[in-house]
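Figure 6 in text form: structure in, sequence out.
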């Protein structure tokens, strides 16, 4: 593993113009937000898409990366058929610029490649391409990464690299147990008390329900794992979420004043108030990614 990391560093260093470790012109800081959960179907993709749209509403330049390489479906929720996906980029048929898809919603997105090999299994050459091309996204203020459920190696890479990791749960007991489970894996894997973890409780019936679920998860994480998790907020159960998925039109566009859409705006304003950790930005993202690859 360490050998592979060394090879990768050499590959990138051999091309300083595109090196993530220091080009003459540092790209501006891009806040990286990774969205994750252990349990499937808790609302990650909806969260990623609507967080992106809500951040764009307050004037941020947002890029959404669909890193769920098993079941990519950001494009389904956005109702956009991408011409190209990560598949074409990793296979070096297209550059990141060429595969970025513009939308009518004020955000840009990079479509995932359903059924494609996990990033963890890419060859040296493919991984080098992927990492170099990620630099192209550094002109965004915010990069939101939607991941697949569970803790595969590539998901942990994106957690390691993120300024903020949003853990999504619902009030269902199995989802709560799984939220604790993923926090435990992160705590064990990274051995640090502050990973910028933030909990979002989706599909709540009331404000109190969201708070109760969050308090449970956060206090157990603090007591047994000694890891800090902040409560970012909740999203109400809202039938509009499902109907807008069926219509392939984001609910914040269908009804910006709806229950779920309002919750998203609250989450954005809370995120905006939190300064993100030192050493953030896409360059650091890539260094951290390399650090992990080497571990
Ligand atoms: N706040 C909500 N209110 C009502 N329904 C919701 C809400 N959030 C999510 N859902 C429902 O849950 C479904 C799954 O959501 P989504 O695809 O975002 O989950 P996911 O975590 O990305 O799933 P996967 O693990 O398969 O990637 C949605 O299609 C929608 O029907
Ligand atoms: Mg999903």
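Output sequence:
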């Amino acid at each position: 593993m360490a050998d592979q990391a060394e090879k990768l560093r050499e590959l990138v260093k051999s091309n300083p113009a595109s090196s993530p470790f220091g080009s003459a012109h540092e790209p501006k800081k891009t806040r990286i937000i990774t969205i994750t959960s252990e349990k499937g179907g808790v609302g990650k993709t909806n969260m990623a898409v609507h967080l992106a749209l809500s951040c764009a509403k307050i004037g941020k330049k947002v890029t959404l990366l669909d890193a769920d390489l098993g079941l990519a479906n950001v494009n389904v929720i956005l109702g956009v058929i991408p011409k190209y996906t990560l598949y074409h980029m990793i296979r070096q048929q297209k550059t990141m610029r060429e595969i970025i898809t513009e939308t009518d919603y004020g955000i840009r997105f990079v479509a995932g490649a359903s059924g494609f090999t996990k990033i963890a299994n890419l060859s040296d050459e493919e991984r080098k391409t992927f990492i170099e091309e990620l630099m192209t996204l550094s002109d965004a203020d915010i990069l939101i990464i939607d991941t697949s459920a569970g803790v595969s190696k590539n998901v942990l890479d994106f957690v390691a690299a993120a300024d903020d990791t949003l853990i999504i749960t619902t009030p269902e007991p199995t989802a709560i147990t799984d939220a604790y489970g993923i926090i435990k894996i992160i705590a064990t894997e990274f051995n640090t008390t502050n990973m910028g973890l933030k909990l979002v409780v989706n599909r709540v019936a009331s404000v109190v329900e969201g708070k109760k679920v969050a308090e449970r998860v956060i206090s157990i994480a603090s007591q047994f794992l000694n890891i800090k998790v902040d409560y970012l907020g909740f999203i109400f159960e809202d039938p509009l979420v499902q109907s807008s998925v069926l219509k392939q039109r984001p609910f914040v566009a269908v009804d910006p004043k709806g229950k779920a859409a309002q919750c998203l705006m609250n989450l954005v304003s809370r995120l905006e108030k939190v300064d993100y950790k030192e050493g953030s930005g896409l360059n650091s993202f890539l260094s951290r990614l390399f650090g992990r690859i080497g571990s």
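Caption detail: Residues 1-25 have pLDDT under 50 and may be disordered.
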